[in-house]
Amino acid sequence: DAATSGSNAGSSRARGGFAFNVCAPDTNGTHAAQGELYPVALFLYGGAWSSGDSAGYALVGRKLACHGAVAVLPNYTLWPQGDVTHMVQDVRDAIRWVVYNIERFRGDPRRIYLVGHSAGAHLAVLTVMRLVCEADALVSSIRCVIGLAGVYDIQDHFEFESSRGVEHLSSMARAMLGKPGFAQHSPTQILRHMGKRHAVLVPEFVLVHGTKDLTVPVESSQKLLRALAEQGVPASLHLLDADHYHVVLDLMCESREHHAYLIDLIVQSMHAEPT
What is the pTM of this model? Predict the structure, then answer.
């Protein structure tokens, strides 16, 4: 597979452009010979909204590229350099960049699959909810959201952090602009209060969570699944015998227990017919 990296020079915000990596399938492959475009997997890493870098997840991009996808791995603003509004804007900008540029890498701008882990899953889902509520045309390019062990209700997770005595060590509450901002930055809550005319714009969801997750309880994904079902959004939840970190680590390494299952799940989602 081929890997290309660059930066978005078009960002006008004071924080500057965001860095990203693109991993594309071998251009000598069958699809390239037939002139076909590949589905695009836009991957958002986790890190409690305050740490992480897309370079540390290059293996995710390469594995997805080996299975016929163009993988885009952007960085996004982290706390305390910015808050959730800046993070969502960065994800939105990454989606926009894909729509207008990904054909250069033989990616299909009409087949974008958002894949996120932990805080990255939260930002992926929250950004989609923002696009849906604004009826932004970008949402029509997003075929599916694949959330790995994500935080989808900020109030619920703050209470979980408080039960562990780590709420003041965690950057989440501050990154979410304090308790007054919890509901408006919680995808599950946004869904529950969404009107039907907007709900029909929500793309399909595939959720994955480890039953041994002690960092983000599995109830986070279960509650989001219920909210999606209430709105009639096609969605599924896949439970693994894994903890919070194995859900993404297993995606990177072929020798790990759940690697084949996770890769197959993502690849099948990308090649499924739209519902």
Answer: 0.92
Q: Which residue, 71, 95, 102, 76, is CA-closest to 87?
A: 76
**Residue 90 designated active-site:** no
Q: Cα dihedral sign for 109, 114, 120, 124?
A: positive
Catalytic residue among 90, 246, 250, 258: 246
Asked whether the bond before 80 is cis by omega within 30 degrees of 0, the reply is: yes
List the catalytic residue out of 118, 141, 220, 221.
118
pLDDT digit string, tens, across residues 7-61: 332 222 334 456 789 999 987 655 455 678 999 999 999 999 999 999 999 999 9
Amino acid at 275: T
Are the C-beta atoms of 6 and 15 separated by less than 8 Å?
no
Q: Active-site residue 31, yes or no?
A: no
Of 213, 220, 221, 250, the catalytic one is: 213
Please confirm, yes or no, whether 118 is among the known catalytic residues. Answer: yes
Rounded distance between C-alpha atoms, residue 274 and residue 160, angstroms = 36
DSSP 16: -
Q: What is the pLDDT of residues 235-263, one digit of tens each?
A: 999 999 999 999 999 999 999 999 999 99
Neighbours of 221 (CB within 10 A): 28
